[in-house]
Amino acid sequence: MGAGGPRAPRRRVDGVLLLDKPAGISSNAALQRARRALEAEKAGHTGTLDPLASGLLPLCFGEATKFSRFLLDADKRYVATVRFGVATDTQDAEGKTIGTRPVAFGRDELLRALPAFLGEQMQVPPAHSALKYQGRSYYHYARAGIEIPREARQVRIDALTLLDWSPPDAVIDVCCGKGTYVRALAADLGEALGCGAHLAALRRTAAGGFDLAAATPLDAVEGLAPEVRAACLLPVDSLLAALPRLELDAAAATDLHCGRHVPWPAASVPADAPLLRAYDAAGSLVGVVRHEAGALVPERMARDPLQC
User: Fold this and answer.
1) How confident is the model at residue 28 (pLDDT cuts 50, 70, 90)?
2) 295-306 pLDDT per residue, tens
3) Start-to-end Cα distance in the chain
4) Least packed by Cβ within 10 Å: which of 47, 227, 228, 288?
5) Contact, 71 vs 79, CB < 8 A?
6) How is residue 239 annotated by DSSP?
7) Catalytic positions
């Protein structure tokens, strides 16, 4: 027994919590606090936010953890505050200043610079990131002062909208694809404008089909009565809303749960949909399947209510 008394019992909780993560704590710390509040046995998140960042952090509990990866690849939206004239070693406000230069441009020059960062492009990830090199995270080498090769990766930025310009800070609405580092974008934008820059603040406002407006602040989750907290959860299949829906009969659902392929005509599934979310006759989620060689193949199954 710890100093705080006995640990609360854990229970099975299934669903998705849209959390409004506060700045100043890690995504894992936010996850563990929400998990304790819900007394949940199993929990995970769908991609981290840096401690500096706040905003939408979808958390998965129980069965939803099986399908969290389907949101990892989703498009994201952020409101980013970029501070020009100061570069840092982490490319954000938590880092050490490595250079300062005067900010000699105005709003019009900034607006003209933004379109160059739209579309598919190559981006060098930050030295302080969780990407791996020879089995260790980039930030491990950066903290030890060891230079490693950082290969540029293809990213996609769909929209950059200037919301406010109060020199030396610009507030920019960023819509981007998976793997995009907004820190790196801020630093690259600063270099393009000849003065350097870093990310001063970041708030995620959307991920996939989820929006920050539907999220609950962490302290509000912790302040709810235990019987009310579960009402904040979305169903497990909310993670899969972008996938086409497929209805199955009982026999097909059972076969897929048992790992068997189910013959299925290609004409009855969208040609451009590699994955589908499948439901049984009762409307319960069977899981995610793919169609190949004239059959449905299990990709990730929900809990099997039957014995195979």
Assistant:
1) very high
2) 999 999 998 655
3) 41
4) 227
5) no
6) G
7) 50
Q: Where are the alpha helices (DSSP H) in the chain?
A: 27-38, 69-72, 107-113, 138-143, 182-192, 218-223, 226-229, 250-257
* Average pLDDT estimate for 133-158: 83
Residue with the bigger pLDDT between 1 and 78: it is 78
pLDDT at 3: 46
> Residues near 269 by Cβ (< 8 Å), separated by ≥ 6?
244, 246, 276, 291
Which domains occur in the chain, in start order?
A: 15-73+210-239 (3.30.2350.10), 76-207 (3.30.2350.10), 243-301 (2.30.130.10)
Across the chain, how many H-helices and E-strands are there? Answer: 8, 19
Token duo for residue 87: 């570069």
pLDDT in tens, 95-120: 999 999 999 999 999 999 999 999 99
